[in-house]
Amino acid sequence: xxxxxxxxxxxxxxxxxxxxxxxxxxxxxxxxxxxxxxxxxxxxxxxxxxxxxxxxxxxxxxxxxxxxxxxxxxxxxxxxxxxxxxxxxxxxxxxxxxxxxxxxxxxxxxxxxxxxxxxxxxxxxxxxxxxxxxxxxxxxxxxxxxxxxxxxxxxxxxxxxxxxxxxxxxxxxxxxxxxxxxxxxxxxxxxxxxxxxxxxxxxxxxxxxxxxxxxxxxxxxxxxxxxxxxxxxxxxxxxxxxxxxxxxxxxxxxxxxxxxxxxxxxxxxxxxxxxxxxxxxxxxxxxxxxxxxxxxxxxxxxxxxx
Length: 306
Known about the structure:
13 strands; 30% helix; alpha/beta; globular
């Protein structure tokens, strides 16, 4: 295992195209409805697997048919499910993803077992070949964030393991104080501009990254959607543009960015070049329907240099 992904796992039900101005009727025909893997940790793991990065996945599901479906879909992708934790008397999380004609989505989630990962669920001792940990869902790892995760990350970094982190929307109002104790143990922090600005009370990516770095984050990479990313770290500081596309579905684009960034940095790319290629791959992924369905390969990444 080279990369360990820790975070949320759900099954996504996607429907498109549905306009916000649509007239709701008892029955309507649309182009497509699909059931697919979802959740930040799962999306990242699937893309890392496509890039042959030997990922491991630490998630939790319920003891229900949806959980069985999720595990089966992961196995079909060739992903090791030995660290998938089944929480008895809980349902598996599910999301309804409504996508409009411009590829923008609205997500309705029914929370379940996905937030219930505990310290005993994490692999320890660390696998000998582990090179990176991705906390794909800060604000969604309640038990870990409160108890033990800081020490786990500190020990990982003492062994030369890089730590990456992203956030989900802070819907329970945990706030900056709930996660900032983890920041000194995070080498690369990859929040969206909206989530990061809400978290820090700032208005621009530049202001946001400055606050995050003052709180201990190694390199802050603020994802700005169609505007690309703002990078603030010791090796590079500046704006990286996204590739212009007409998106079909933007779901999972940030997770594609994270998986590409981790892969490229572990292969020795500079932060600037890794962000540049990851931005282009993230844009390219929106041409496919689903959070992790784009057929990402190293040949694709190489083609995006042009």
